[in-house]
Amino acid sequence: MLRNFILLFLALHVFSCKDSQATLTHIDGKQIPITDSIKSDPAIVEYVAPFKARIDAEMSAVLAYAPQSLSKNDGPFNTALGNMMADAVLELSNPVFEKRTGNTIDAVLLNHGGIRSTLNAGDVTMRTAFDLMPFENSVVVVELTSDKVNEMFEYLKSGKAHPIAGMQISIDDDNNLVKATINGEPVKDGQTYFIATNDYLQQGGDGMTFFSDPVSMEVLDYKIRSILVDYFKTQDTIAPVRDNRFTKE
Amino acid sequence: MERRKFIKQTGIATAAVAGMPSLDLFGASAKSKKITILHTNDVHSHIDPFSPEDASFPNQGGVARRLTLIEAIRKENPNTLLLDAGDIFQGTPYFNFYGGELEFKLMSLLKYDAATIGNHDFDNGVGGLAAQMPNATFKMLSANYDFTNTAMEGLTKPYEVFIKDGIRIGVFGVGIQLEGLVTKALSKETQYLDPVEAAQDMSRILREEEACDLVICLSHLGYEYRYDKISDLKLAEKTSGIDLIIGGHTHTFLDKPVVVSNAKDEDVLVNQVGWAGINLGRIDFEFDTSGTVKTTSKTITV
């Protein structure tokens, strides 16, 4: 009896699959924007509330003020927002690095994709720092050979506005390097350079393989987000500018 | 031939329901069926709507609003699937504070059916992702990550077949190359396998072995690249048997879904709806089940 039932089931299964009569006749595709014209489901709002309350308490602390919104897309080659982040890393990491090693950070390279939001005009809060840098990545300082530094410039000549500080780059119309200097000086063969980045990029993130096998490395245990928070605390007004650290001739 | 098949199937169906109320197999309502696919990608922990002061997306998005919209569509068509193409995690303090717990719990409350894994879903390590899996009632699909010897081993499936109104819908997932995006410290022993081979294999299994009427790829490969890297557009061109590729990773806002010719010159729909839950994608598939439609051509409106 059971066996017969299984056989019938199998027969049904096979025939219903193989002899399916369904023929796809029409496809209609679109997207629907989620705006404030759609009412929030009250059960979800209630469910989220305790999670939200704990976060809001910490996130609303005002750290500084921004007269204008800043976006990582507000220019080619270098952006005010990227410059601010790279400059903040240089300014705040260097004392830590110097104290530990006696050396000085020569330059900073972060990645454009690592800037995760706009910085909106108005109060700059703890939330701003989390929005810009939600990742837990920390600053590492790698000591690179001149060959690796040149590889880094070859990587950067594509023109993407990766945040940089302490270096100057200029490319021509065909994206060839015209100028590539560290602190205004061309890279000297045989010399090593201390470049600050984050642990994600050091481990080959965004294809930055020149960081992979450094001469030496110092992990600062200083999160990029904490750097932003500390930087905002030292500033009344956040108004960085685009400059000529990376240009096209 | 078509008629013979039709009679055979009807006969068996009748036998199976003997003694039960008769089904109206010939009724007008049974001749056309509609499946609705709803989808998101790269929601990145954006649970609340963006603030009214946000420079890019003021007052947009929000999980609670998304559910209201989804419920309205489910009321209109109960034969609806809800899917996500990965990067569920990372982007707001909700992830920093709770490690993805709330994201998975909310997706379960919204009754997501399936999702695939994005590179940022590894941000707390393969172990951090595995730790949140008990909060997910939806299927986590990946056909090209081999999780052997990792905490995710046994917690994913390559594909799932959903049956809605008798229509068999095969859904599978493909993820992006981890090297350069996810550090080894996070991905551990996760192996990335060729997504094109995986996708073609899935398409064959779902069409031939699982006899699916509709095949959907959930992809976190990215929409398009200016350099030689596999993308949704390339995947669509290089494979066959896939009806819809729901993409992610590149946070691409498309004006409308894109139609691509596949390896057999058939139409594939590729869609992606930006990120952060700003939009909900909706694709309706209509099927003729009268048995009289033999043509393989279909109309597409986008």
UniProtKB/TrEMBL annotation, chain A:
Any single GO BP term: nucleotide catabolic process
Domain (5'-Nucleotidase C-terminal): residue spans on this chain: 78-212
Pfam families per record: 5_nucleotid_C (PF02872)
Domain of life of the source: Bacteria
GO molecular-function terms, A-Z: hydrolase activity
InterPro entries documented for this protein: 5'-Nucleotdase_C (IPR008334), 5'-Nucleotdase_C_sf (IPR036907), 5_nucleotidase/apyrase (IPR006179)
Gene3D superfamilies xref list: 5'-Nucleotidase, C-terminal domain (3.90.780.10)
Name under which the protein is recorded: 5'-nucleotidase, C-terminal domain
UniProtKB/TrEMBL annotation, chain B:
GO molecular function: hydrolase activity, acting on ester bonds; metal ion binding; nucleotide binding
Domain Calcineurin-like phosphoesterase: 36-252
Gene3D superfamilies to which the protein is assigned, alphabetical: 3.60.21.10
Biological process annotations from GO: nucleotide catabolic process
Keyword Hydrolase: yes
Keyword vocabulary terms for this entry: Hydrolase, Nucleotide-binding
Cross-referenced SUPFAM superfamilies: Metallo-dependent phosphatases
PROSITE patterns per record: 5_NUCLEOTIDASE_1 (PS00785)
Keyword Nucleotide-binding: yes
InterPro entries reported in the protein's UniProt record: 5'-Nucleotdase_CS, 5_nucleotidase/apyrase, Calcineurin-like_PHP, Metallo-depent_PP-like, TAT_signal_bac_arc
Cited PANTHER family: 5'-NUCLEOTIDASE, 5'-NUCLEOTIDASE-RELATED
Family: Belongs to the 5'-nucleotidase family.
Identification of the protein by name: 5'-nucleotidase
